[in-house]
């Protein structure tokens, strides 16, 4: 398997625009920083972090747990907003 080099290729990385309408949150499958054109230094930093996570199972687990926690918090906040909206109308 080829070894990933975080210093090469970052400038050629491309990020696809959101799929679907802007009003459809499901179309945004990546943070705004990835959907825009970040500077080369940002791309290299993200590649370095991804490389470190790929080689450290414990760090990957912590990263995934944190992402899961943030998603759960976001879903809970959306549900609370929807309930408040329903009571007003």
Write a brief caption for the model.
The chain has 89 residues and is mainly α. The protein has one domain (10-88). Helix content is 57%, strand content 0%.
Q: Which descriptors would you attach to this protein?
A:
89 residues
Blueprint of the fold:
Elements: H1 32-35, H2 40-54, H3 57-88
Task: Write down the secondary-structure element order.
Answer: HHH
What is the total domain count?
Answer: 1
Alpha carbon gyration radius: 18 Å
User: What is the SS-derived class?
Assistant: mainly alpha
Please work out how many helical segments DSSP would assign: 3
Portion in helices: 55-70%
The main pleated sheet reads as:
none
The span between the termini is 58 Å
Describe it.
The protein has 89 residues and is an all-alpha fold. The protein has one domain. 57% of the residues lie in helices and 0% in strands. The chain has 3 helices and no strands. It is flat and about 50 Å long. It starts with 31 loop residues before the first helix and ends with a helix.
């Amino acid at each position: 398997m080829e070894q990933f080099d975080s210093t090469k290729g970052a400038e050629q990385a491309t990020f696809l625009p959101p799929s679907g309408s802007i009003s459809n949150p499901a179309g945004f499958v990546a943070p705004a920083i990835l959907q825009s054109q970040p500077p080369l230094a940002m791309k290299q930093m993200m590649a370095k972090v991804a490389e470190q996570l790929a080689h450290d199972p414990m760090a990957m687990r912590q990263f995934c747990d944190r992402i899961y926690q943030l998603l759960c918090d976001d879903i809970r906040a959306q549900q609370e907003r929807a309930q408040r909206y329903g009571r007003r109308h």
